[in-house]
Design brief:
3-stranded antiparallel β-sheet; mainly alpha; 5 helices
Length: about 160
């Protein structure tokens, strides 16, 4: 009997989950490599450096020195808000939602494991950061871009391919 393959369609939340898992996994992997193998101050092209540091605050050092409970509370509320926004459709799904959720969860897990977030990319004029921060920034940029583009174009650009 011949079998035909049917193309499975993945829901918007399915793509969010895939992108979130990819973002969290790649962030985790780079942090493990940074912690275990990176000598201090390794130079990169374009003036960036790899320089291992730990951020006890939130994004780009905000709330640094605040009690752990306050920082964890702010992060947890942010992640819960992101999750609600994606599920309810307030925030675009697909790539943007996945990058935001994956980046936020990756930094939360790092914080819970070590009391701070592992940062290792240093561009000099900006606080050190990691891949999760890049994913969060790109996710925000995609959301802002979607807000200024026409609805039909916006829906196409933020959807994952069929």
């Amino acid at each position: 009997m011949a079998h035909t393959l049917t193309k499975m369609r993945i829901s918007g939340q399915g793509w969010v989950l895939r992108w979130a898992l990819l973002a969290a996994a790649t962030d985790w992997l780079t942090k493990v490599v940074a912690e275990q193998t990176m000598p201090p101050g390794v130079g990169l092209p374009l003036g960036a450096r790899l320089d291992l540091s730990h951020n006890t605050g939130v994004a780009f050092g905000g709330l640094s020195g605040a009690p752990d409970g306050v920082v964890l509370g702010v992060v947890a509320v942010g992640i819960a808000g992101l999750g609600w926004a994606v599920v309810s459709g307030v925030l675009p799904g697909g790539i943007a939602g996945g990058l935001l959720l994956g980046g936020a969860i990756a930094n939360l897990v790092d914080r819970l494991e070590g009391g701070g977030v592992t940062d290792f990319i240093d561009v000099g004029a900006w606080p050190s950061f990691n891949l999760a921060d890049v994913y969060l920034t790109v996710g925000v940029a995609l959301v802002l871009l979607s807000a200024v583009r026409p609805a039909e174009s916006r829906d196409r650009s933020l959807r994952a391919p069929d």
